[in-house]
Amino acid sequence: MPSPATSPEAPSTGAALSAGSDAPPGRLGRIDTAVHLGFAVLLVASAVRYAMRHSLQDNLLVLGLAGAVCAVYAVIAVLARQRRPWAVWMLVLMAIWAVLVIAAPSFAWCSFAIFFLCRTAFTGAVGYAAAGGTAAATAVGLFRLSDGTDLAMLLGPLAVGVMLTLIYDRIEHDAEQQRRLHAEVSQVQGELAASERRAGTIAERERVSREIHDTVTQGLASSLLLLEAADRSWPGQESRRDVTQATELLRRNLSETRSLVHELASPGLDDSPLAEALHQAASRYVPDVRLLVTGEPGNVTAEVRHTLLRVVQSAAANIQQHANATTATVTLGFLPGSVTLDIYDDGTGFDPAAAAPPSDAGGYGLRAMRQRVEQLGGVFSVESSPGEETIVAAQVPARLRAEQAAQADREEP
């Protein structure tokens, strides 16, 4: 890491010793303010103490050194606040300080502030050497004060310097770990948010593709079959009927397309009973379809209603296009806590396991029906085989609207 002497971006006392610019302005709890204030108080107190105990001749030299230390310290504080290099000034401060503390050990208390400045200004081996030099100068000054007789005065500052160094290193290590963990958490959160956005986009695309398949694609495919049949039988009476039916399908398909653009909902079906809506949706493709209802009918939620309508539409369109059936039956069953739907036809059947995968030519119907049902926590199945009848079955958990409203009332405080 570069020192402040080589990089203006290096930590300063205003940033490295405290919350820095993140702290509220003028907050006395900031560490840098406490260090500067503590140094000023200790320096003034030490100068007063020394002046009261020594002669005027001694006072002038020591107080001059103290004034120089104070001036250099002020320069460092200003440069640090402005995030400008100040390591060279720190070397000057250490040199003057070493002379001052050896000449007047009364100023040894200011060593704590000098220690923190050394660790802020320098890193690595240089930082350890600077802190060690501060501790050594203090030890020499105190040992000299005892006339070389008190070994504790020599070893005490050195021991305190070692302890402060270990504590400072541990704080720096923990702070670095915290910054690293915070960066990792931020990165993971960003990746998770991006993943959720991608998943949401994919889910929305699949939902829209199902809506388009069950409305626009199925309607156009059925209309195309009717127009092709009319072309083959033209100008007979059957061709007029096929053209009329294709026109009606296209008109309804246009209406559903407009509704899809605005609301993605089936027009004209939301206000009618579910059984009637299902029969109407199926009869668009299979005019002679029969409807059976079992159980006690109820008004299901909008999500269940929409899913059942789309399943019936898609299954009926498949019957018209592929089954060659003579009979088709839709059975709607109301069970406690669920709704069942069976679409039966006596057509040619097929092998569900060998169904073509989705492609430009089609193949989305069964997959779309299964996804709709399973998204509501339901079960979807297809029973068929070549040459046999086909049964498309779905069972969806469904709270009736009245039960849902009662549950909401119970949950209200």
Structural overview:
It is built from twelve helices and five strands. With 413 residues, the protein is α+β, with helices and mostly antiparallel strands. Among the domains are: 13-149, no CATH class; 273-413, Heat Shock Protein 90 (2-Layer Sandwich), CATH 3.30.565.10. α5 (111-121) runs antiparallel to α6 (124-145), α7 (151-233) runs antiparallel to α8 and α10 (302-323) runs antiparallel to α11.
How many strands appear in the DSSP assignment? Answer: 5
Distance between the termini: 59 Å
* CATH architect. name of the domain at 273-413: 2-Layer Sandwich
* Number of helical regions: 12
What are the low-pLDDT stretches, counting only 5+ consecutive residues below 50? 1-29, 265-269, 401-405
Instruction: Look at the structure and name the CATH superfamily of the domain at 273-413.
Output: Histidine kinase-like ATPase, C-terminal domain
Name the CATH class of the domain at 273-413: Alpha Beta
Please give the share of residues in helix. 55-70%
Task: Work out the radius of gyration.
Answer: 43 Å
Q: Given the C-alpha coordinates, what overall shape results? A: rod-shaped
Remind me, CATH topology of the domain at 273-413? Answer: Heat Shock Protein 90
Helix/strand-derived category reads: alpha+beta
Largest sheet: number of strands, sense, barrel closure? 5 strands, mixed
Whole-number mean pLDDT:
75
Tell me the strand percentage band. Answer: 5-15%
The SSE string, one letter per element, is HHHHHHHHHEHEEHEEH
